[in-house]
Amino acid sequence: MFRRTQADEYVRPPPRPLVLTAQNKPPNYPQQVHISSVGSKHMRISWVTDDRRTASAPSVVEYGTSPGNYTASAEGSHTTYRCSSYYSSGAIHEVTIGPLKPSTTYYYRCGKVGDGDADMSLRTPLANLPIELVVIGDLGQTGWTKSTLSHIRDADYDMLLLPGDLSYADRVQPLWDSFGRLVQPLASARPWMVTEGNHENEHEDGFVAYNNRWRMPHEESGSKSNLYYSFDAAGGAVHVLMLGSYASFQEGSEQHAWLKRDLAGVDRQRTPWLVVLLHAPWYNTNEAHQDEEVGESMRTAMERLLYEANVDVVFAGHVHAYERFTRIYDNKADARGPVYITIGDGGNREGLASKFIKDHKSAPLSLFREASFGHGRLRIVNETTAVWRWHRNDDKFATVADEVWLESLATPNTPTKRRSLHR
């Protein structure tokens, strides 16, 4: 049960300053630790050390199912990068561990650092349904980011999905390091699966920082680019596609051809849920990023592919507000189209996009919209049913403001039940 009051009672909070997380450990100490899923039984663990020497900062992870009792180890590699701003990164380490058991807590240590507070733990996702996915976009590193992360930390979830705009470093490379330290408590404990936004494209340096720091399992899904890929969750019951709004996507492009191949390989009897994430929304009634070419061009190039594959839901970021649409295809309500959700409200430094266009052509398709910081949780209950809840960030606790129950489009002609919960 949720308390309902009028939406205009909610007073939006003022902007908050950046939260800069300092490095106060020895040069060989692992920092910015985050994990990502690689196939069904492996995890990639990434971290950074200021020390670039392999002798004192090796790319090794020790792990086991008991605290401090590391019965297995794996070796990986490290890389560095330089930017036009004369910034040189620390050593960025990557190690893949496994095979791992599902729904199991593993304790691990990076780089053979003996300090007890370097010991960490992660929990592997379930091998079947139900599964809970946290979705959060345009995160940044402000006071609101920190508050939103605290709300997520209190939740019991399996994996976090982020549709672009991570650190908002914007060529100030030390902000990538600060961001990595800020999110480490969460990103080291559950898989973070991300795709790029416009703020990852750092002018003449392109995506060099993003690609080196946040390597995703694109090779495993047949993608030639770290900017788009796919993966399975819940033992293959859920297939997630992370599309690249800032990689070429027109028909004839590598990404377009990859998307067709990937969708063609999905067996909906085995995989009842198809989820897509991208950065620039295809549907948007906010004044921010209105009529922006990248979103509309990508929609024109790829929407039919998603529709014909019966994709269930599409998440986007970019617009710093929350908006949920009905099922849509080609600018019209369509019961066999995806539900489109914009969730670019994680806590970025640019503030909220507070103005929606009341007479926008897509306004009749928009079922709930609000300019507030927050995050969402998609709980896929079973092969036919899921529930999406958007949690408004009101500082002290996460308030459920919007809820919708979804039926998989692998299930013939089942209506969507929806409920909006206003505070």
Please provide a written account of the structure.
The chain has 2 domains: 31-123, Purple acid phosphatase-like, N-terminal (Immunoglobulin-like), CATH 2.60.40.380; 125-407, 4-Layer Sandwich (Purple Acid Phosphatase, chain A, domain 2). Helix content is 14%, strand content 30%. The chain has helices at residues 143-153, 174-187, 208-213, 254-264, 293-308, and strands spanning 31-38, 42-49, 60-64, 72-75, 77-79, 91-97, 105-110, 120-123, 131-135, 159-163, 192-195, 229-233, 238-242, 273-277, 313-316, 322-329, 332-333, 339-343, 366-370, 374-380, 385-393, 398-407, 417-420. Strands 12, 13, 14, 15, 16, 17, 18 and 19 form an 8-stranded mixed beta sheet that branches. A 7-stranded mixed beta sheet has the order 11-10-9-20-21-22-23. A 4-stranded antiparallel beta sheet has the order 1-2-6-5. β21 (385-393) and β22 (398-407) form a beta hairpin. The two termini are 13 Å apart.
